[in-house]
Specification:
Length: 192
């Protein structure tokens, strides 16, 4: 399994989907799987039951996906690394790529977005800076590779990820823990 981790808005979902296409692998977005499980949007779960309830479902879902996902590309949610058990499972069960993005770049992309509950505050840029300070060390601790995202296009980022994985021999048969499959008809989920 190839897992993408990083700040909300760094491009995990967008890059992950294109990467899966390129590798002819199944694409999984854990946030979409969580929404299928809970039967409502993540935003509604946050509003009704709070962040900790979401984190518990997220940990259980990522445990299942990393155990059974084989050679899939997995795009995680930005807070996936908050639980130590999940950090360990992601790292031990596959290759982990950190898509590094700075708070100011993310803010430019997401300032009109209303789907990410953690950013629905009076000062989203300050919130991004504080999330970054807390999480950047956790992303680095979990990742096998770090990719700088600021300026490159999605297509370039996909090339960069593939190159890193090839250099490390991580795309060799068996290295991802399962066979790859034709991509388009096998997407587990789509963006909202
Ligand atoms: N490299 C990039 N260049 C320009 N826009 C991007 C890039 N990566 C992602 N985006 C845009 O940023 C937004 C957030 O991307 P998304 O893949 O949903 O991030 P994540 O899943 O990490 O939260 C989307 O509108 C997406 O189109
Ligand atoms: O950063 C976070 O804690 C979260 C990021 C979101 O995913 P993206 O990183 O895809 O935005 C989603 O899992 C949830 O809203 C919480
Ligand atoms: Mg996403």
């Amino acid at each position: 399994m190839i897992s993408l981790i990083g700040m909300p808005g760094c491009g995990k979902t967008t890059v992950g989907r294109q990467l899966a296409r390129r590798l002819r692998a199944v694409f999984i977005d854990s946030d979409r799987v969580i929404e299928e499980r809970i039967g409502c949007s993540i935003r509604v779960l946050f509003e009704r039951e709070g962040e900790e309830a979401f984190r518990a479902v997220e940990e259980a879902t990522l445990d299942d996906l990393t155990r059974t996902g084989g050679g899939a590309v997995l795009s995680t949610g930005g807070g996936a690394v908050l639980r130590p058990a999940t950090r360990m499972r992601l790292r031990e069960r596959g290759q982990v790529v950190y898509l590094h993005a700075l708070p100011d770049d993310i803010y430019r992309r997401l300032r009109h977005d209303t789907t990410r509950p953690l950013l629905q505050t009076k000062d989203p840029l300050q919130q991004l800076r504080s999330l970054y300070a807390q999480r950047d060390p956790l992303y680095r601790e979990t990742a096998h590779f770090v990719i700088e995202t600021g300026r490159p296009s999605v297509a370039t980022l996909v090339n960069m990820v593939v190159m890193q994985l090839e250099l490390a021999g991580a795309l060799n048969a068996g290295a991802l823990g399962g066979a790859t499959q034709p991509a388009p008809s096998n997407e587990t989920s789509t963006d909202p």
